Amino acid sequence: MGFGSQAVAAVLETPPLALYVHFPWCVRKCPYCDFNSHTLHGELEERRYIEALQCDLATQAPEVAGREVISVFLGGGTPSLFPPRAVAAFLESARRHLTLAADLEVTLEANPGTIERGRFAEYRAAGVNRVSLGAQSFDDARLAALGRIHCAAETRRAAAELHAAGLGNFNIDLMYGLPDQDLAGALTDMDEALALSPSHLSHYQLTIEAGTVFAGRPPKLPADEATDEMLDACRSRLEGAGFTQYEVSAYAVAGRRCRHNRNYWLFGDYLGLGAGAHGKLTLPRSAGVVRTTQVREPRRYMASAGRGTFTRTPVPTDELPFEFMLNALRLVEGFDVGTFTARTGLSWESVAATMAKLIGEDLIVVSGACYRASPLGLRFLNEVLLRFVTEIPKTAGQSELSTALQPAPALSKRALFTGVGGGNVK
Q1: Do residues 318 and 312 touch, judged by C-beta distance below 8 A?
Q2: Checking DSSP bridges between strand 288-294 and strand 200-205, what pairing results, if any?
């Protein structure tokens, strides 16, 4: 394909910057989850972990001195295991060490089964202004099959408390293609979710990921034809309720697209803090892009925070087209040529021939300088992405993008990039 033979020919610009913070513990690890999460045994080491995050932040902050942070995402694991005072302490450190945007978006992932009454108001006072609620389903039998610790009633209560706390900007995470689920069940879940008046909804298919409990003992899932039907019917419900699809698995009402995840999808930068967190930074002076990788085990992270808990790996030039397209082609609106050249440092000629072939196959649509996947291209997105690599890059699926990316719904059983997985498209 010759990507490696193309010299860096464009000016590499500094993109927007976000902050991802990983909280690695859960009450119980779900059998479909392949994220870096650990079952909590004993008392939560709240103070020690927050102090480790603060040390990590102080170590990394000089790298981005003077750059404005547009969003903070508190993900996991289950961040809502940590009380509001812990979140407030971390965000105060972020204000000291970083330049935070005046309209900063701060998202907290929350499991309905870990939220005590009144806590959302306290999280809001701590600085959280957006919540992502891990509902997954409103069928208690399906929730039990997924290993979730909450029931549907707890999700409804959590949503009511979000509204009462003035946190109406919240996402609901919803799965389809669940064990023994049919079309009627998927639509009932969707209607239940919409009844709670979220501003954003993440809708993704359950997939079996390597290394999970489900991989060893796979449940019986609906056939591909059935899940395709669920997806189409649920999308129609969402559109009828005023939600616009802006990414493969993400829908939002007007003005409520997730700023943090859009930054991922447009190949923006982000600091990664916490056990197992990954980051990405653009270095215009050295004309390169680097990935950062934190140690995964929480105790090792806490023991060494502030003393080099992460490694840095340059993204090879010949992997940049794949890395960029892996993200940008998931957006319904696609991207423009200027964004590609500014955020990879590559000339458009490095991918022009591949793009021309994809356009000829009706997989990519071009309008002026803007390129996007066609409906057919979105359905076969993984096959489209393969055109930009000669082999799967070592960096693929290993960043915090793994919290934001999910294989294209209709291709889950043929998905190639299985380092991604369920639950965090918010």
Answers
A1: no
A2: unpaired
CATH number where 190 lies: 3.20.20.70
Each residue's pLDDT tens digit, 246-265: 999 999 999 999 999 999 99
**Does the residue 362 lie in any domain?**
no
Q: In what order do the strands lie in the sheet with 269-273?
A: 244-247, 250-252, 200-205, 170-176, 130-136, 99-110, 68-76, 17-23, 269-273, 278-283, 288-294, 310-314
d(CA 148, CA 191): 20
Tell whether 270 is covered by a domain: no
In a domain, 109, yes or no: yes
| pLDDT at site 401 | 39
Residue 68 in domain: yes
**Which tens digit of pLDDT belongs to each residue from 335-356?**
999 999 999 999 999 999 999 9
308 three-class SS: coil
Report, as an integer, the average pLDDT of 231-247: 97
Domain that holds residue 232: 8-262
Q: What pLDDT score was predicted for residue 207?
A: 87
Number of domains observed in the structure of the chain: 1
